[in-house]
Design a protein that fits this description.
The chain is of the alpha/beta class and 176 residues long. 42% of the residues lie in helices and 22% in strands. It has six helices and six strands. The chain has a six-stranded mixed sheet with strand order 2-1-3-6-4-5, with helices on both faces. The longest helix has 19 residues, at 157-175. It is globular and about 40 Å long. The relative contact order is 0.23. The model has no long low-confidence stretch (mean pLDDT 96).
Length: 176
């Protein structure tokens, strides 16, 4: 099995940071690397650590490599400054592909159990990485960068490792 792991957004994406300055890519990248180490599978990093790859390029990398699953890792945001929304949510394409739904439900369940964060559920969206991949694909929002409590968690190595272990556990349960 080959799993494409995407640290959503890039190192120089404008905006995409917490009010106290953490770039979303810092969380996404660290968690993606921890996830790679947790998986007993062939993995492909769809992002680049030095430059912002387009969504098209990320998806093409995964499609060309013949990946069996695409996992995009993100941290959510709402508004400007510190805001109240919080919790974890996992997305699949609006067509609700059965394999993607099964993985998303397992990932959502494992993440909420492991982190104790609010369960915002599995949702659908027409995100490019969910629409253009030719394999099952999910997009994870592992907490809100604009929520002071969750922003603090997103910056911690232990939280990043906890998220990676939970995602890996769900992938092992549903795909391996």
């Amino acid at each position: 099995m080959k799993i494409a792991i995407d640290a959503g957004h890039g190192p120089t994406t404008r905006g995409k940071r917490s009010p106290d300055g953490m770039k979303e890519f810092e969380f996404n990248r660290a968690t993606a690397l921890f996830l790679r180490d947790e998986l007993p599978a062939d993995t492909l990093l769809a992002h680049d650590d030095q430059i912002d790859l387009s969504l098209r390029e990320r998806v093409q990398r995964a499609n060309r490599a013949g990946a069996d699953l695409y996992v995009s890792i993100h941290a959510n945001a709402f508004g400007t400054g510190w805001t109240e929304p919080n919790g974890i949510e996992t997305y699949v394409h609006t067509s609700r592909p059965p394999q993607s739904m099964a993985v998303a439900q397992a990932v959502q369940r494992e993440l909420v159990l492991a982190t104790g964060r609010r369960d915002r559920g599995v949702k659908t969206a027409d995100f490019y990485v969910l629409r253009k991949t030719i394999m099952p694909a999910i997009l994870i929002e592992a907490g809100f960068m604009t929520n002071k409590t969750e922003a603090s968690l997103l910056q911690r190595t232990d939280y990043r490792k906890t998220c990676a272990r939970a995602i890996a556990s769900a992938i092992r349960l549903t795909c391996m």
